[in-house]
Amino acid sequence: MTEQETKLDFVRSIVADDLASGKHDSIVTRFPPEPNGFLHIGHAKAICVDFGIAKEFNGKCHLRFDDTNPSKEEQEYVDAIKADVKWLGFDWGENLFYASDYFGQLFSWAVHLIESGHAYIDEQSSDEMRAARGSLNEPGTNSPYRDRPAAESLELFHKMRAGDVAEGEMILRAKIDMAAPNINLRDPAIYRVQHKHHPRTGDDWCIYPMYDFAHGQSDSIEGITHSLCTMEFENHRPLYEWFLAHLPVVATPRQIEFARLNITYTLTSKRKLKKLVDSNVVDGWNDPRMPTISGMRRRGYPAECLRAFCELIGIKKTEGTVDFALLQSILRDHLNACAPRRMVVQKPLKVVVTNWPDGHVEMINAKNHPGDESMGTRQVAFSGELYIERDDFREEAPRKYFRLKPGAEVRFKYAYYLTCTDVVKDDAGEVVEVHCTYDPETIGGDSPDKRKVKGTIHWVSAQHAVDAEVRLYDHLFNQANPEEGGDYLANINPDSCQVVTAKAEPSLTEMLADVVQFERAGYFVHDITSTSDKLVFNRTVAMRDSWAKLEKKLQG
Ligand code: ATP
Ligand code: MG
């Protein structure tokens, strides 16, 4: 094997072998979401696997909506899923399919199974069926209807189809083996009555196929070669193969399972995410705290970071939990390299420059990126009244506090060295204004006498700054495992969104498309859903915690 080949994960190895052996001339995969919610980061992984592998091997990947359950599915979800897959950077081209398009074919195949003695109508109640299924240790028991004549089952199946049967009154089951060690093979249900309107087929049907009876056959109809899914379907594979073996299908796809993606502080279940939406814990599916693709997009996560993350964690058979910090570190590395810089003061404290010429405004040249000259510079107004971060000043400061404190000199980034001379306090004794003098010789933030200052802080000019609402997001859950203690709703982090009104450089009003680095604070993106004139920014990710760590040290 070449070095290249030894690096392939187990799915790619299977695909490569099938192409090399001539089993397939080209490969076809599919991504099969059920449109019962918005896609989340787990789906992003599946999309990267399904579409990514097809692309690498010059094959195709279908987008197929697994819309066999009309009670939970909606058009809104179909539209959102399409938008999310595209945004992630993948394209199904002409290969957009719906399992519901195969209802006619699936119905004929169900009839085929009845006629060939491999399926029967069961009229037991659901409780009776459950009791007869047995357990992991005991075999199940045959239904009294199991050996009824095929003609009788066929007649009843047509009755079900005609709408003359109530929900739960009877179902169609495959006749496999009630003693099979794999419970999925104990005469699984394949069709049930549901008097429900379907978003695509309307009222054409009142019986709907079960997932297991639809999935493999849909794969076969579409000529899927490798049907990639998560490990929970491993026990369904024998059934997947049983149906294909007992039906007159042309193509026999191969199902291959890989481990789900789990991430700390993150729920990856549409059902549970829907609960958060329905119970207003979050502000919709695209709330920036949600691990949905739309939430992460609104949070400012670039699609390429999500793809890089999925690539890095790779495909394995064994389940594990990935640290959310890994995703954050990918985001920081990427954004550090490409995000333009701006100065924004989140918790403003006024600074008055006492020796500044009255009313004078100076335009200062500031780099848009410290390491990328091609991003150019901008002009920032400096004046006699500025805002700095409240945390950047301390009246009683420890020796190692290198920001502004009485008597100390610090660099105001790109501008001047300033020395704190005095403070103004309110009645409660809180500092409301800091007085400083500036050294005109230090223009541009450098001193000609090479005098050293240890601290550099950011600032905005009070009269020029614009207000921006800034949303500081943290984990939605306060437990690394959101299910800790059994109830994820009990583990919601009450401080997952803090809103502050910040003072920003006016040029921020022109930064509505890209993620911007607010100097020293982190990466932020304009909220795409905000319609008011007010600037609203979402925090994508904070800077590495070095400031927080230093702060702790200072306090300790
Ligand atoms: P959920 O439980 O969130 O509804 P699901 O598996 O039921 O997830 P589907 O819409 O049926 O959601 O899934 C579409 C595809 O995405 C499937 O192939 C499934 O295996 C895959 N998938 C779902 N969750 C994850 C995950 N956490 N990691 C990797 N792949 C996933
Ligand atoms: Mg599902």
Task: Give your account of this protein's structure.
This protein has 556 residues and is of the alpha/beta class. Among the domains are: 3-258, Rossmann fold, CATH 3.40.50.620; 339-465, Beta Barrel (Ribosomal Protein L25, Chain P). Helices cover 27% and strands 23% of the residues. It has 14 helices and 27 strands. It has a seven-stranded mixed beta sheet with strand order 12-25-26-27-23-24-13. Strands 21-18-19-20-14-17-22 form a seven-stranded mixed beta sheet, with no helix packed on it. A hairpin with a 3-residue loop joins β25 and β26. α3 packs across α12, α8 (211-221) crosses α9 and α12 crosses α13. The model has no long low-confidence stretch (mean pLDDT 95). It binds adenosine-5'-triphosphate and magnesium ion. Adenosine-5'-triphosphate is lined by residues 32-34, 42-43, 45-46, 66, 229-230, 260-261, 268-271.
**Separation of termini?**
57 Å
- Oligomer state of the chains in this structure: single chain
Ligands (ions, cofactors included): adenosine-5'-triphosphate, magnesium ion
Structural class: alpha/beta
Cross-sheet strand order for the largest sheet:
12-25-26-27-23-24-13
Topology summary:
Blueprint (H helix, E strand, L loop, with lengths): L2 H4 L3 H11 L7 E4 L9 H16 L3 E6 L9 H14 L7 E3 L4 H13 L3 E4 L3 H7 L17 H13 L8 E4 L14 E5 L13 E3 L1 H11 L4 E5 L6 H10 L7 E5 L3 E2 L6 H9 L14 H7 L3 H11 L7 E2 L1 H15 L2 E2 L1 E2 L2 E6 L8 E6 L9 E6 L2 E5 L19 E4 L4 E9 L5 E9 L16 E2 L2 E2 L4 E8 L23 E8 L11 E3 L3 E5 L8 E8 L3 H10 L1
Helix pairs in contact: 3-12, 8-9, 12-13
The structure holds adenosine-5'-triphosphate and magnesium ion.
